[in-house]
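Researcher: Re-running this chain for the archive, since the previous output was lost when a drive failed. Same request as before.
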Amino acid sequence: MAGNRLSNWLQSSPTIKFVVIAVLALVLMIPTALVKDLVQERQQRQFEVQQEISQLWGGDQTLEGPIVSVPYSWTRTNDEGKVLRYTGILHFLPELLDATGEITPVERHRGLYKGVVYSSNWNLKGDFTLETASLNLPENAIIDWKRSEVSIGLSNSRGIQQPIRIRCGAE
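Model: Regenerated structure tokens:
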């Protein structure tokens, strides 16, 4: 009879039911936490793979220029009669710059993960006015046009896959 009363009490007691539900909830939290950790690990790995693919491809690119740089020199006689030679560089930016490009997304895979990188092809057309009359140059300045250079700045040259071609004039 005592065993029967204990059995009835265990079956009808709200405290026992609450304890059993709490234990089941705690036991079920273990696989939930494991799945959550796995998802976070995979998300972190996905981010790392995307960064790695991006760096192998060439990373972010910033294109600067074009700039025409022209060296010049001048002389000056100091108070002691000694002739001093100075040099400088003139930098000319285009009066008009037309930049047209085509950007194509490229999907790269590494294991389970994928990342998107971009391939592009750019055409820059600039009109330069290489006028020196308005510049504040010394009177005896000699501009060395033969040593002129065209500069284009790139933040990361690793991503260049084809040679850069520059045309000057109507050629």
